[in-house]
Structures are given as structure tokens and as C-alpha cells.
Design goal:
The chain contains ten helices and 14 strands. With 337 residues, the protein is of the alpha/beta class. The chain folds into two domains: 145 residues, NADP-dependent oxidoreductase domain (TIM Barrel, Alpha-Beta Barrel), CATH 3.20.20.100; 149 residues, NADP-dependent oxidoreductase domain (TIM Barrel, Alpha-Beta Barrel). The radius of gyration is 19 Å and the shape is globular. It starts with a strand and ends in a 21-residue tail after the last helix.
């Protein structure tokens, strides 16, 4: 399966994307050499879509990603970043960031979905990455700020897109209901849906995925491992689901899905990566990666054959919803990232 275009835009995404939160020291320190090697391995594997954000490591992810890509042909890859959190001086630093990234907290995040805030955010992201442009810009987690995000930030992004400064615009969130509103009610071309269309959570079928089909717009799937529980062949107690310890019933369900995967000649994480692509609106799966080894493992899983009969079996056993669609060819292993 080759690159797919974000509907009504010139932007093409490879089916597998590189999520750069990990190289921003999410939860643990990633040495600079590991970050550079991870981006290099992704490039060698044919991955050409890279997603970052100011939030990730208080700018560290953007700086590292930009440095790793700087000598690559600019027209050969796509970079997305996000707006909504400005980075401003922290008047009361405590030493280490308190939002999950192991970095100094000389800066802090300041919510800002105003027109000027979006323009400033993009300008500062360009400075940190050293790139000449951002191909895609998402509004980042506007859960509590719909009015300003829809009324000021999205029109600001639309102006830049219509001027040719940005290729595509949208929003990225861990919930699906508001993303449906962005698709239906704003100029968004694409949304990044985190964790709400996975083997353990198909709630996006109730809102954002129908909205994408109705509006003819595109969806990027992230968080397909639900922060960990679907990332191993055999799930275990103590693993995380949506960044918290997974409840035992979910662990049991993940184990049951893993058993069915085995009977179909595949493994749970390969199925978790293939599953979102069964929906016709989902054009890309983006995974967080921080080392060369992680990239190479994810690419192997991406290429692993996942038979469409698996989805039928999971439906029949009540392990996924019966209204999960199957798009012929999307659930099969691909020969290119």
C-alpha cells in the first residue's frame, strides 16, 4: 500500500508515520544519538511522515527531528506539528517538567488558540525545527477550548493553507466526539485520532469516522497500542492502557484477542497496527518511536501479513464491534511503509 493523499490537499502520507514524542524524552531520557538513529532508521525503511509538537519535551522533539531531517531532500518528506500550547519562560521552575517529559522546566506551556497565538506557535516551531515549512498543522488537544479553537485558531490555519504556507490543517485529540465537530463544522482537512479506534476501543465509529466519510475528509490514527497494552504479543498485568494501569477485564480481553491472532498466524501488535487501516477514512497509522530498534520492530510488524479473516473471527467472538468495516486490502501487510 503506497502513500495516500489527505483529501483535497497536496499532502501525501506514507501508511506508517513516525511519532516523535519519544525523542522528546517522553517518560524517560532518549540519548541524542538514539534519537538521530531512530529517524535515520525510519528514513531507511521508507517512512516519510514525521509528527511532532511543541508540547513534546518543551520543544526538544521539534529540535531533534528538525536536526535529523535537515540534510534530507525537503520535498521528499512530510512534517506535521501542532498549535495551541505556546512555550513561554517558566518563572517558577522546579527542575524537571511535570507533564511526562524528562527535560528541564525552564519553559512552561501556555494554552493559546487565538489567531495570533497560532501564528506565533507556527513561527516558533519553524525556528526550533529549522525547516522552511510545516506540511500539516494540527490544533493540539483543544478539549476545553472549542469556541476559540474553532472560531479563531482554525480560521487562522485556513488562511495559511489557502495561501499555500501549509499543506493541510486539522486537529489532534484523545477523544473522538470533538474531532467529529472539527470535520463537520470547520475547515479542517484531517484529524489525528489517538486511541479511539483500536482493537480495544472502537468508539470512533459513533462519531468521527462517520463524519470523515460524510465530509470526505481524512483521519490519521495514533495511539493504536492504547499506550502499551496492545504492544506485546502476550499482554500482562501491570501494562498500561491510556497511560494508566490497565484494568484486569481489559487485560483479559487483550489476551483473548492475542489468542485469536495466533490462530490466524499473526501477533497482537501487528493486528493492532493493521486494524485502523480497515476503515476507508484512515490513511495513516503513526507510532511513537525513540530508537532504531523500535523503528525496525514496528516496520517488521507493519509488513506482517494480517488476514482479513481475523476481523471476521473477532467480530463473531464479540471481541470487536460488529459494525467494524472491512476494506479489502487494508488489513493486509504492506510492501512499503
Amino acid at each position: 500500500m503506497g502513500p495516500r493523499t489527505i483529501t483535497s490537499t497536496p499532502v501525501e502520507l506514507t501508511p506508517l508515520g513516525f511519532g516523535a514524542s519519544g525523542i522528546g524524552n517522553l517518560h524517560r531520557v532518549t540519548p541524542p544519538g538514539d534519537a538521530e538513529a531512530a529517524v535515520g532508521a525510519a528514513w531507511a525503511a521508507g517512512i516519510r511522515y514525521f509528527d511532532t509538537a511543541p508540547h513534546y519535551g518543551l520543544g526538544l522533539s521539534e529540535r531533534r527531528l528538525g536536526a535529523a531531517l535537515r540534510d534530507r531532500p525537503r520535498d521528499a518528506y512530510v512534517v506535521s506539528s501542532k498549535a495551541g500550547r505556546l512555550l513561554v519562560p517558566n518563572e517558577q521552575p522546579r527542575g524537571v517538567d511535570d507533564e511526562g517529559f524528562i527535560v528541564r522546566d525552564d519553559l512552561r506551556r501556555q494554552w493559546d488558540f487565538s489567531h495570533d497565538g497560532v501564528l506565533r506557535s507556527i513561527e516558533e516551531s519553524l525556528e526550533r525545527t529549522g525547516l522552511d515549512r510545516l506540511d500539516v498543522v494540527y490544533l493540539h488537544d483543544p478539549d476545553d477550548q472549542w469556541r476559540q479553537a474553532a472560531g479563531e485558531a482554525m480560521p487562522a490555519l485556513a488562511e495559511l493553507r489557502d495561501q499555500g504556507v501549509i499543506g493541510a490543517i486539522g486537529a489532534g485529540m484523545n477523544q473522538s466526539a470533538m474531532l467529529a465537530r472539527f470535520l463537520r463544522e470547520t475547515a479542517a482537512d484531517v484529524v489525528m485520532l489517538a486511541g479511539r479506534y483500536t482493537l480495544l476501543d472502537q468508539s470512533a465509529l459513533d462519531d468521527v469516522l462517520p463524519a470523515a466519510l460524510e465530509s470526505g475528509k481524512s483521519v490519521v490514527a495514533a495511539g493504536v497500542f492504547n499506550s502499551g497494552l496492545l504492544s506485546r504479543d502476550v499482554p500482562a498485568a501491570g501494562m498500561t492502557y491510556d497511560y494508566r494501569q490497565a484494568p484486569q477485564p481489559l487485560v483479559a480481553r487483550a489476551l483473548a484477542i492475542a489468542d485469536v491472532c495466533a490462530t490466524h498466524g499473526t501477533v497482537l501488535p501487528a493486528a493492532a497496527m493493521a486494524f485502523p487501516r480497515t476503515h476507508p477514512s484512515i490513511i495513516n497509522v503513526t507510532l511513537g518511536m525513540r530508537t532504531q530498534e523500535q523503528v525496525e520492530r514496528n516496520v517488521r510488524l507493519h509488513h506482517q501479513h494480517v488476514p482479513e479473516s481475523l476481523w471476521d473471527d473477532l467480530r463473531a467472538r464479540g471481541l470487536i464491534r460488529r459494525d467494524v468495516p472491512t476494506q479489502s486490502g487494508q488489513g493486509r501487510g504492506s510492501q512499503c511503509p
